[in-house]
Amino acid sequence: MTCFMCKGKNVEDTTTFMCDLGNCIVIIKNVPCFRCTQCGEISYSDEVSKNIQKIIEKLRKSITDIAVTDYKLAA
Question: pTM, whole model, 2 decimals?
Answer without folding.
Answer: 0.85
